[in-house]
Design goal:
about 325 residues; single chain; ATPase_dyneun-rel_AAA; Rossmann fold; two-stranded antiparallel ribbon; P-loop_NTPase; CbbQ/NirQ/NorQ/GpvN; 14 helices; alpha/beta; ATP hydrolysis activity; Cobaltochelatase subunit CobS; 5-stranded parallel sheet
Amino acid sequence: MADKMMSGPDKMVSVRQLFGIDTDLQVPAFSYRDDHVPEIDHAYRFNPEVTLAILAGFAQDRRTMIQGMHGTGKSTHIEQVAARLNWPCVRVNLDGHLSRLDLVGKDAIVVRDGKQVTEFQEGIVPWALQRPVALIFDEYDAGRPDVMFVIQRILERDGKFTLLDQNKVIQPHPAFRLFATANTIGLGNLSGLYHGTQSLNHAQMDRWNIIATLNYLEAHEEAAIVLSRVPSKDTENGRVLIERMVTLADLTRKGFAAGDLSTLMSPRTVITWAENCEIFNNPALAFRLSFLNKCDEYERPLVAEYYQRCFNEELNESWLVQTKVGATE
C-alpha cells in the first residue's frame, strides 16, 4: 500500500458528488489511506468558495493560502478536504521556535553497526517534497524571516529545492501540494489583534496563486454542528439553548473585531460549553468554566453583559454558590 501511495493519486472524483458543490470539476484522489491522511469529521461544514479554492490547489497544484480570524477552522478545512481525497497531509506551525534547520535538516550523530557516525537528517520540507503530501504551514504570517526565505524556494509550482550541505537538488513529487493559513495577509499586526505576526515580503506573497478568506459559519450552521457533537441537546429546549450560545459567541467575535475583547469564542469553544452544560447542568457555570475564565479580568463585565443579553440572566458569583457540582437530590 505504501508503494501505491508513493506513486500518487490513482483515481478522479466528482466534486459535485463528494462535496455537493454545483460544479463539473474533477479532482485526483487516492483509493487508499495511510497514517498521514486526516480522519474524516462527518459533522464538518464546508464553505463552498473556500472548498473550491482548496480543491484547485489539489487538482492544479496551485499554492493556496487561507486567511481569516482565528477559530474559523482554516487548517481544519484543508485537512477535511484532504481526508475526503485520502490525500496525506502534514501540518507545521510556524511559531517562533521553528528554525531553518527544522525545515531543511541538519547533521546528527547516530549509531551504525555499533559505531557513532554523523548523518544528515532531512527536515520536514525535503521529506514532504519527495512524497505525495499536502504540506500546510499554519500561522504563516508569524514565521521568522530566515524560515520564510527557506519556504520561498518551494513556492514556485515546479520549484526545485537545493540542499547546499549535501550538494543535492530535490525535484518535487508530482503530487506534492503546498498550503498555508494566516490571520493576516502578510501586512503585519496593523489592527493590533495579532501580536507576533510579521509583514511579509511582497515578492513572496505574490507567489501564492490563490488566497481565500474564511469567515465564521452562519448561525444556523454552527448550531447544527454543536447539536451533532452534543446530540442530547437536540430537544426543543436544547435547541433554544444552543441558539442563544451561538448568538453569544457571535457577540464576542464582533467585540474582538472591534477591539473591545482580546479573545473570542470559536465554534470549538461553543461545543466545549455545550458539553460542559451536560456535566454541570448549569449554562452559567459551564460558561464560566469554558470561556469567561479565559478572558482578561477587565473584559469580564462586558462578556457578562453579552450573557445577560442572550439569556436574560445576570452572570454573577451566585451561580457558583447555588450550584453543587455532582450533588444528587
